[in-house]
């Protein structure tokens, strides 16, 4: 990683110098892209994810333990959430930004065919765990010192989503949760959400693999997203440049929802 540039352009004036962030689901994809952007702008970051080896690789890529910490576990595990938040504060001395990125999508097809256990799992990870992360971070640091929270939702949470209706419903709930938390935690903590469309990651591969050109043709900007697109928006919402914005969902979609 070149700390002087981000996505080929000069980095911002180190908006996160001296600050600490925790990014869930950050061993790869969007989460790692967000962590990379925050570190490039001066933050130290705790990454969470299910696979310890992938987290170790991500930490190394971010510059090692001086810049990043990896804590492996499942986002819907309360003990993991408590341990990750505690380790962040113990290691780096503070916690200024929480990015709720971890998500799951095990259900494909019509709602009437959905397995109840899989539906429950989707909401456990995509909604209930997010509230759990916020509660832990609030107890450990944010409640006394303030900070910013960014939740990664999806354009599927803005309207009907064929074949991924369960996922979309969970992301709609996350947007509503973001709004409620923004009211309850103001004025010292700001809470906002992002709603990306299809981003080229392993998580979303089934939505475009083998037909990327066809899918991208439906986007006014002519391409699918990449993790850096979402990272740019997340960094804005996590910075003081968005200091009068809370409870909002920023759509990052290449214009596709205009159709």
From TrEMBL:
Superkingdom classification of source: Bacteria
E.C. number(s) listed in UniProt: 1.1.1.100
EC primary class: oxidoreductase
Keywords: Oxidoreductase
Gene3D superfamilies: NAD(P)-binding Rossmann-like Domain
Gene Ontology MF term list: 3-oxoacyl-[acyl-carrier-protein] reductase (NADPH) activity
Keyword DNA-binding: no
PROSITE patterns: ADH_SHORT
Protein family according to the UniProt entry: Belongs to the short-chain dehydrogenases/reductases (SDR) family.
Protein name: 3-oxoacyl-[acyl-carrier-protein] reductase FabG
Organism in which the protein naturally occurs: Actinoalloteichus hoggarensis
Gene it is expressed from: fabG12
């Amino acid at each position: 990683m070149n700390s002087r540039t981000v996505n080929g352009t000069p980095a911002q004036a180190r908006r996160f110098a001296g600050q600490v962030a925790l990014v869930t689901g950050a061993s790869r994809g969007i989460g790692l892209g967000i962590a990379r952007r925050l570190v490039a702008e001066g933050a130290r970051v705790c990454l969470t994810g299910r696979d310890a080896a992938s987290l170790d690789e991500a930490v190394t890529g971010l510059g090692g333990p001086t810049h990043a910490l990896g804590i492996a576990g499942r986002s819907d595990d309360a003990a993991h959430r408590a341990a990750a938040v505690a380790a962040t504060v113990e290691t780096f001395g503070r916690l200024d930004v929480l990015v709720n990125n971890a998500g799951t999508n095990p259900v494909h097809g019509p709602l009437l065919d959905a397995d109840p256990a899989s539906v429950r799992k989707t909401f456990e990870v995509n909604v209930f765990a997010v509230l759990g992360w916020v509660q832990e971070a609030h107890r450990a640091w944010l409640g006394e010192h303030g900070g910013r929270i960014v939740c990664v939702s999806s354009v599927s949470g803005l309207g009907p989503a064929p074949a991924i209706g369960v996922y979309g419903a969970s992301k709609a709930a996350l947007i509503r949760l973001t709004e409620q938390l923004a009211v309850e935690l103001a004025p010292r903590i700001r809470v906002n959400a992002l709603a990306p469309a299809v981003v080229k990651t392993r998580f979303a591969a089934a939505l475009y693999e083998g037909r990327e050109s066809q899918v991208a043709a439906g986007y006014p900007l002519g391409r699918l997203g990449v993790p850096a697109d979402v990272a740019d928006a997340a960094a804005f919402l996590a910075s003081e440049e968005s200091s009068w914005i809370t409870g909002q969902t920023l759509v990052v979609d290449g214009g596709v929802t205009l159709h």
